[in-house]
């Protein structure tokens, strides 16, 4: 979603190659050959391969600086990178944990053979442990509570920031907003996270939802149900 929003905001032409996660199309030696974490998205641009979505959108914004998605003020630029990095830091331990437990657990369980193949391909210890738990015994009450606490703290901070401006950083949409909008969307749609406590965050999300990039990058790709549609796949 981050990558598609950025591409659409900049009016760039791009081609999608679908990787269906529910069919485990990402768990192949071929895909791990271009993305060593076996995750989506992956961008291939003029022979350059980039695998982390926040690195990817930052690269796109610097490579195609027309219609910039970053502030020029140094302190605001630092804050933009702070919000981007924070969205990365909480992804596995909070966002993925909360969503998998609430919505996805059991739908992507791996057989013993698939788990063995995954362990041979995957070298990231955090992802190995996450998928072990999501495929077997699940997450402890303490882990789920910790995930919820992290999310509450992040959106409480966002609520405070949005009391000063319509956007997370500065006076216009930046990569910080693009980094967080997919988290808001998936937590709401897949996990029923309660955003009623954060009215400014809801207003911020509503502003983004009225942009053309939101329709093209999120809604047009969102499945009506999981996991039985080809659009459950992500964009590589």
What can you tell me about this protein's structure?
The protein has eleven helices and four strands; from the N terminus they run αβαββαααααααααβ. The chain is mostly helical and 236 residues long. The protein has a single domain (2-220), classed as Glutathione S-transferase Yfyf (Class Pi), Chain A, domain 2, CATH 1.20.1050. Strand 2 and strand 3 (48-50) form a beta hairpin.
Features:
Glutathione S-transferase Yfyf (Class Pi), Chain A, domain 2, disordered C terminus, 236 residues, two-stranded antiparallel sheet, mainly alpha, 11 helices
Q: How many domains comprise the coordinates? A: 1
Across the major sheet, the strand order is 1-4
**Which stretches are poorly predicted, pLDDT < 50 over at least 5 residues?**
226-236
What name does CATH use for the topology? Glutathione S-transferase Yfyf (Class Pi), Chain A, domain 2
- The secondary structure category is mainly alpha
How much strand content do the residues show? under 5%
The helix tally amounts to 11
CATH class annotation? Mainly Alpha
Shape: globular
What share of residues is helical?
Answer: 55-70%
Annotation, overall tally of beta strands: 4
Element pattern in H and E: HEHEEHHHHHHHHHE
Radius of gyration, in Å, reads 18 Å
CATH architectural arrangement: Up-down Bundle
Summarize the biggest pleated sheet.
2 strands, antiparallel
> What's the overall average pLDDT, rounded?
88
- What distance lies between the first and last C-alpha atoms, to the nearest angstrom? 11 Å
């Amino acid at each position: 979603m981050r990558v598609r929003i950025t591409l659409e905001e900049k009016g760039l032409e791009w081609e999608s190659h679908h990787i269906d996660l529910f069919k485990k199309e990402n768990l192949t030696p071929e895909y791990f050959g271009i993305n060593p974490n076996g995750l989506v998205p992956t961008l291939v641009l003029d022979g350059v391969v980039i695998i982390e979505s926040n690195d990817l959108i930052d690269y796109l914004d610097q490579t195609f600086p027309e219609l910039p998605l970053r502030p020029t003020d140094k302190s605001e630029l630092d804050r933009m990178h702070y919000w981007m990095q924070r969205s990365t830091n909480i992804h596995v331990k909070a966002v993925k944990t909360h969503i998998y437990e609430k919505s996805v657990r059991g739908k992507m369980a791996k057989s013993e053979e698939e788990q063995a193949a995954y362990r041979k391909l995957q070298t990231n210890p955090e992802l190995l442990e996450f998928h072990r738990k999501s495929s077997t015994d699940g997450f402890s009450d303490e882990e789920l509570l910790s995930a919820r606490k992290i999310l509450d703290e992040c959106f409480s901070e966002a609520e405070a920031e949005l009391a000063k401006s319509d956007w997370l950083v500065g006076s216009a949409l930046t990569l910080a907003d693009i980094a967080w909008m997919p988290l808001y969307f998936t937590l709401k749609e897949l996990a029923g996270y309660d955003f009623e406590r954060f009215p400014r965050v809801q207003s911020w999300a509503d502003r983004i939802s009225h942009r053309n990039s939101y329709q093209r990058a999120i809604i047009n790709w969102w499945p009506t149900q999981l996991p039985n549609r080809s659009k459950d796949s992500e964009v590589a």
